[in-house]
Every structure is written in C-alpha cells, then in structure tokens.
Amino acid sequence: MTIAASIERFGTVTMRLMAVALAAAVLLSGLSTGSASAKGRADIVGTAVAINDATGWFDTLITGATCEYLGTTVTDILSSPDKTLFAPTDWAFQKLGQQLGLGRKGLNPHNICDVDKLLGEGTLLTVLGYHVIDDRVSYQEAVKASPTKVKMLLGGKARITGTWWTLRIDGARIILPNLRASNGYIHVVNRVLNPLS
Questions:
Q1: How many domains does the chain fold into?
Q2: Residue 178 sits in which domain range?
Q3: Which residue has the higher pLDDT, 161 or 21?
C-alpha cells in the first residue's frame, strides 16, 4: 500500500469514527435512558446503551454487564460517580473468544454469560471490572500522563502508553475517545483488556 493510499484510508476511517461520535452526541442530547444529570446527560450505562443503539458496537459488553448471575453489580458500578470505562467492541470480544478456542463467532451476546463456566467462577466480573477506572480520566489527561500505570477498579494495574494518535491501554488501542457521560467518560477500545494475562 502506498503512503498516499495509507493516508487516504486513515482519513476515511477517522471520518467514519467522527460521524459515529457526532451521531452518538446528537442521540445523547435527547436521551432519557439511564440516570441523567441536571444537564440531561445520561450516565455511563445510559450512554453506552445509546451508543450501541446508534452503532451496534456493544451488544456483547452490555449483555455481559447484565448477566443474571451478576445482578446489578456492574451497572451499579458504572452508574456511580466519577468513572471511566474502556469499552471493547463486539469485534474485540469475538476475537478474544476465537483466541480462547470458542470457534469463529468467538465471545458474543449468546455465550458471554457462560464465561465463568468456561474459565472459572468470577472471571467475567474480574474482566469487566478491569475495564473501569474509579475516576474521570479524559483522553487528554491520559496522553499527558503517558507512559503510566493506572489502578483498575477491581484490582490490577493497566499500562497506558503512546501519543495523541496512538494511545493504548495494555496494548488495546483507544479508537474513539472522550464519549462523555454525566458521571465520567467512555473510551472505545479495539481489544478486551485481560487482567489474567
């Protein structure tokens, strides 16, 4: 691929991501799902649901966070004050499931709640909790602090490295940053963070 073609491809992908972010922002401006602040902005749970309604990116994440045996643990965490969620896409869960030998469809909304049966009790909550920081951390703040380690909500420290264009957390690239919620931020990542690796 030529340099010109690479630049054109990068520009196309960037424009698509910007269009998704703009569509999500427009959708969120009139959102009534989830808890809302005085300004009408939804919390992280409501924001993630609205983004998923607009993009279809978070079916697996949302299903996993609401598995019956977890009760409201994850949604309560994400609705509490000052949180940052690194949200893996459905493709990221699919890829992880393929690496774990779960077949072509990998981890998906139909099998995400079986993770504890496959990998041991408490695995799903541990993995989901490893995607949350108990603080509001914007993309700009993360870039300024890089390289650094941050404590994740349910234990362990994740490493943030990179620059404005290539910021990563534990190797997962942040592909859509700073989706604001009333209680913090969502940063979309292209891989599932694995505290067990």
A1: 1
A2: 3-189
A3: 161
